[in-house]
Amino acid sequence: xxxxxxxxxxxxxxxxxxxxxxxxxxxxxxxxxxxxxxxxxxxxxxxxxxxxxxxxxxxxxxxxxxxxxxxxxxxxxxxxxxxxxxxxxxxxxxxxxxxxxxxxxxxxxxxxxxxxxxxxxxxxxxxxxxxxxxxxxxxxxxxxxxxxxxxxxxxxxxxxxxxxxxxxxxxxxxxxxxxxxxxxxxxxxxxxxxxxxxxxxxxxxxxxxxxxxxxxxxxxxxxxxxxxxxxxxxxxxxxxxxxxxxxxxxxxxxxxxxxxxxxxxxxxxxxxxxxxxxxxxxxxxxxxxxxxxxxxxxxxxxxxxxxxxxxxxxxxxxxxxxxx
Length: 324
Prior knowledge:
By secondary structure, the protein is mainly β. Helix content is 8%, strand content 35%.
């Protein structure tokens, strides 16, 4: 199941930048911090929040795609990629001696710049850099470029092809973001577990774990309002306005791989069902859909709150104890 966003916010930024970033869910913990949200009963006091750690290895820009708007949506104008023969993308599709049509695509986009409505970069992830993942096959993703004029966006793409992008280039501490992912799969389940239908009395002759009535006799069909058994979980979902409480940046080499183990978030023995966090990570307030190691996408908030909050003052993290 593809974890992508169907829409992105329109940001008025001075410089071109990416608007989204991928990551992998690690696990949960709790933090004690000073509440700086305005108008709350606990403003200025220490509160405890359940939080989720998402590991965010660097991504690499390998190409771009230019779109133009039509009445039915957007259609691609030109697509260019520069992929080496030893690229990690060879695990996704055959690259042979490499793919390089970037210069022709850039010139074509520059000639028809008046028709372009949006630029998106093609990036791939580095899952092998994450501490808890065993897979090496990357995800190939389209991420819109926002900020600046179209000419500036095209220059940004031309300068940053084959460059690494880290999560600190896209987000900052205290920011609100949206997260898209796939929930935990529960398989085929009945109406009690799937919809919370109340159990029938114990003397119900044909079973308790079902609905009491499927509807009227006429018209002779079952409406969509009647709870029915079926697939539960493993659904794509989007959650809005999750706040970044902390952003951890690892020391990395030239290829983006971590130089040494990050030590400011890991519990002793690592996170359950994941392991040790090695790369950059985000500490996000609340829960994130899916089990550990699941791929998630994060973007700038589509409908953020009216107030802006800076980085919170954290005094305690459950995995490492007192902070500062």
